[in-house]
Amino acid sequence: MLENKEIHISEDEAALYDRQIRLWGLDAQKRLRGSRILVIGMRGLGAEICKNVVLAGVKSVTLMDHTNVEKDDETSQFLVQRTDEGKNRAECSLDRTQQLNPMVHVYKDTESVAAKPDEFFHNFEVVCATCCTTQEMIRINNVCHSRGIKFFAGDVFGYYGYMFADLNDHEYLEEVHHVVSTGYGAKKQKIPDSKMAKRNSRFITLQDVLDFDWASTKGKMLMNKTPETYFISLVLLRFRSEQVLHNAQLTKEEKQKKVLGLKNTVMEEIGISDSIVSDKFVSYCMGELSPVCAILGGVLSQEIIKAVSAKDMPHNNFFFFDGVDGKGLVDCIGTYE
Amino acid sequence: MANVEQREFAGPEEIRAAKLLVVGAGGIGCELLKNLVLTGFRYIEVIDLDTIDVSNLNRQFLFRKQHVGKSKAVVARESVQALNPDAKIIAHHSSIFEKTYGRDFFKKFNVVLNALDNRAARNHVNRMCLNVDVPLVESGTAGYLGQVTVIKKGITECYECQPKATQKTYPGCTIRNTPSEPIHCIVWAKHLFNQLFGEEDPDQDVSPDTADPEAAGDAGQEALASDGVTGGVERSSTREWAKSCDWDPVKLFNKLFRDDIKYLLSMANLWQHRRPPTPLDWGNLPDSVPGSSTSAQDSDLLEDQRMWSAKMCGQMFGRSVNTLKERLKTKVAEDKEHGYLIWDKDDDPSLDFVTAAAGIRSHIFGIAQKTRFDVRSMAGNIIPAIATTNAVIAGLIVMELLKVLCGNYSKCKTVYLVRQPKSKKKLLVPCELVKPNPACPVCSEKHEVTVRLNCETTTVKTLEEKVLKDALTMVAPDVEIEDGKGTILISSEEGETEGNHGKFLKDFGIGHDSRLKCDDFFQDFEVVVNIMQSEDLERGVEFELIGNVAQLKAKMDAKAASGSTPRNGQPNGTAETTSANSDVIVDDEEDIEIEEEEVEEDEMEKDEEEGAGDKMLRKRKAENLEKDLGSKRPRVEPDQSDDDLIVL
Q1: What is the 8-class DSSP label of residue A84?
Q2: Which residue ranges have biased composition labelled Acidic residues (chain B) (predicted)?
Q3: Would you call A181 exposed, middle or buried from its count of C-beta atoms within 10 A (0-12, 13-18, 19+)?
Q4: Do A293 and B395 touch (CB under 8 A)?
Q5: How many domains does chain A have?
Q6: Chain centroid, CA A48 distance in Å
Q7: Is there a domain that residue A2 lies in?
Q8: Chain A residues closer than 8 Å to B646 by CB
């Protein structure tokens, strides 16, 4: 990952990417330029991620979604038109995504991720799954993990959102700051300087995270320190698996009631006390709120950029946003160390 | 319990009915407009005076290549309108300082959202919002960092409640005599540009400084006596001299980089503990590149990232001088009085000139040389900017807006985006809003500031331009002396007080403890300026602004305690003062704030601004922070943000 690929940045590209090259350097930009990204799920969060990575200047982005544009997309999906209702999400997002940066190859894939063989994922440096069920995420994550493909997952549930990353064994460069002395005698001066240092960060799979034993000594110790949004996300992922999250047949109240019921089931299953998560969240967890998509999409995209450019310490392994209290937390979940 | 229940967030009706003003359609503005329309807002006015540049396109996603050169506000409106044809979006390609946007304009909005890149405009919008009591959501980004806060009259701090740190300045003698860092050479080269082609400023002298207290000897004088042709003292002005030799590059070069350096060498005290400089001769410039390795590595770099040899610097110096000279002559022919060039980081000859001159000077003093790429950042104060940070901040703005809109101020927060979680896992750090500062010169009942200056040497024009307009960001001030007679010192009406410009403050009986009533009718902003007479301001510093009386008192007490010794050799610019002179490198589009190395333990630092910025950073007292931040406060570490902001 760290070896420099044979990629040339033209002067046109240098002008376009000037402000970010000044931030992360030319080498990082070259690595970005060589990366192929798969984004699964083209709702609000998927749209934000596509926008950010296309603007950053990767090699290619594939938009994947087999579902159709709904009325709800009006409030968060800015890559489709209002007139696209009923048409495929990936198909309809293609044009606007491409317009964001003509130097990036933008592809669509209108098949369901469930229909894709494992080999399909080998074509990418990064796979980012949104709007997937837990089972789908685990499968894709395992394929990626075994091949050293960087895997990300994320979802927005109303005012809440989470991001998960599995970068396997990730090597990266980090700028280390130190002070150098110049001059001599009484006029010796200290000038801040920096150099690049090689670092390493080890990640675990989503399966390992979910297998974490909350009843263990470590688990009991961590239970109260773990962001509430983690447990809320588990409940809402279960809600999605049961295919009711986007079920238009149900009223808001019916959905909320269903979520509350699921909360008790999920908490019991993983063996944590029901009181860890307050019931308040059910009033704030429906739909995809545009500002929450922007916040989560911004953080997640920056993690993708970090991962492919092999520069800077990644967030290992979750980021949570709770729009009700305004907190954005990074936590490492699922390890016993 | 009497309860009208306070809702957490605004509902769909409030969102549909709200009228919003977005000030700025740049990095944050584009993201913000998208979020607002998607969230369901139906009435938005957006104002920006800027036009689209190619370097905006990596993040200002409402713009495309074919839009380069067009109005940001107009194109942003067109792009975002497609998301909801029912929304009413009005674009103003204009400056928020225009008289059209007065009280009546601001009054019609429920909330104003700032997406700005400079402090003057932030101050102005802050004052206008306070005037008409409209809540303001303020924001800024710099590299990976960002922040959002809410300003509501009487409930929270206003934008100007805490004095902002100014840009780092460098002592004149360091720039002129003893540079030790690359930035010293770059600042010197920019001064040289102004001396040769720009607006001449006596504070930007580039010749050896014979009054350097450190030289403290007569070596320089001796040298001058023995060698009449060298030295910077005898010539009337660099410009006059350059003109007399028609900006001959060879003569300029040998004077600046050979003779002046020889003169500096004669000030022997300076070099007792320093590496002495090496004069260079035009005819004999080395062609090797300092610290450069194989040419194979060079091919990996951008053209601008290649280091120039001294010889190459000489060639570029000569070429750019010739181009700039011709431009200057054209300008002077057009307008004799105001015919001068303005340095611009995006203008090739201007950048070549500074890169070359700074490179040669670095070579002379044995300082690490910078490439054209780096010089553009350092001299142009570019704040790097990325889409992801702007997206996060624009999202957070809407989260705060939804609380403001239903009056839920107790839940509004200042939120910081940091680079790595520092305390309690927080990447987004919410902090309680701070109450208004009772001594704030802008939002408190009593608007007073103290200015320390020398009435004997300060002109009325300096007071107006540098103190009132620059430091206090007034637009068109009227100034009356509180001398019992109500003498008008400055009038905003044209033709009334221009005669006073060249006179000194003492000529109007202004001295220690004089009070000047300053009134800006347009901003509806009034402030009393207390004069503190001072003859011991640091060299080259024209005045110091002291935020409020409490700070002034503390300062005077400290002085009394130290036996009222003059502050010799003390570093300039403590946190509470603003020295408004000097090497403030400002680019309207993109400038930067520089953090001091030493940071007080109790302060939380935060930088500002998308792609441009502010020459400010906010320093915030520890007690203002949310309690649960614990003892380890999240601080944007100076070393880290230095990295983000380009080391200066």
Answers
A1: G
A2: 585-611, 639-648
A3: exposed
A4: yes
A5: 3
A6: 10
A7: no
A8: 22
